[in-house]
Amino acid sequence: MTGNDILGELWEVIGNRVQNPREGSYINSLLRDPKGIDRVLEKVGEEATEYILAVKNGRQREIVMEAADLQFHLLVSLKAAGIEFSSVLDELESRRR
User: Fold this and answer.
1) Which of 12, 39, 50, 80 is positioned for an S-S bond with 35, CB 3.0–4.6 A?
2) Structural domain tally of the chain?
3) What is the CA radius of gyration of the chain?
4) What is the per-residue pLDDT for 3?
């Protein structure tokens, strides 16, 4: 499975949790937190900080894990903000030279 496949599948799961909330779903707990989008953004900030520290300290395995956590929470924050992942991909494509 390619990176695009994984990210696309993850985006679909996030959207599915929005449309069909499941008890015990981590995604739902983030999106339905009383803090609203602030809770999701706190997680983005937390994961970004953990990623930065892992890179700074040269911890290869942690870099990979924190990068995955950061990308996951970024996708959840996009959904919470009402932004389609395809819009981000389109923007990245428009920047190619």
Assistant:
1) 39
2) 1
3) 14
4) 63
Structural domain including 53 reads: 3-94
Where residue 72 sits, what CATH number does that domain have? 1.10.287.1080
Query: Which of helix, strand or coil describes residue 43?
Result: helix
Q: Are 11 and 30 in contact (CB under 8 A)?
A: no
Residue 1: per-residue pLDDT: 61
3-class DSSP state for residue 36?
coil
For the cut 90, the answer to whether the pLDDT of residue 2 exceeds it is no
Count CB neighbours of 17 within 10 A. 20
Calculate helix-pair angle for 60-81, 3-19, nearest 10 degrees: 40
- Side-chain-side CA neighbours of 31 within 13 Å: the count stands at 24
